[in-house]
Design goal:
- It is built from no helices and 13 strands.
- Strand 11 and strand 12 form a beta hairpin.
- It is an all-beta fold and about 130 residues long.
- The strands form five sheets. It has a four-stranded antiparallel β-sheet with strand order 4-1-8-9, with no helix packed on it. A three-stranded antiparallel β-sheet has the order 11-12-13, with no helix packed on it. Strands 2-3 form a two-stranded antiparallel sheet.
Length: about 130
């Protein structure tokens, strides 16, 4: 039997609370993150921008046997964390309007530490 550490994203109940996965009902396709082949006990959670906060229990870690495609032992909640770095607007532009200006950014963060894509963000200004 071989085993590796995997991470599963928790579902939410009707009240919006994260629910601990159950080994007997979890399926391999529910695995959100796998380890690198050279480090079977290290999983990199990716897809977030610098400064994003991930709450306690959004993810659960467990051992998994890829040969039998079965989870081993119990799922343990991954403690919450904040992605390293600082989210800073870049490419700030202003488009004058009749009553002020529209401020926009070409991308949302200049200090990204993940592989997440950036999205444009626009905000209108009002008053002084």
């Amino acid at each position: 039997m071989s085993k590796e550490l995997v991470v599963v994203e928790a579902t939410k109940d009707d009240n919006g609370a994260y629910v601990k996965p159950v080994r007997s009902t979890e399926k391999p396709e529910n695995i959100a993150f796998f380890p690198n082949a050279s480090e079977p006990y290290v999983v990199h959670i990716t897809g977030y921008d610098a400064g994003d906060s991930i709450p306690d229990g959004k993810y659960y870690a467990a051992f998994y046997d890829p040969e039998t495609q079965k989870f081993l032992g119990q799922f343990i909640a991954v403690p919450g964390f904040t992605v390293a770095g600082e989210s800073t607007p870049a490419n700030v532009k202003v488009t004058p309007t009749e009553v002020g200006g529209d401020v926009s950014t070409g991308d949302e963060s200049t200090a990204q530490t993940s592989n997440a894509s950036s999205t444009a963000d626009t905000a209108s200004t009002t008053g002084k």
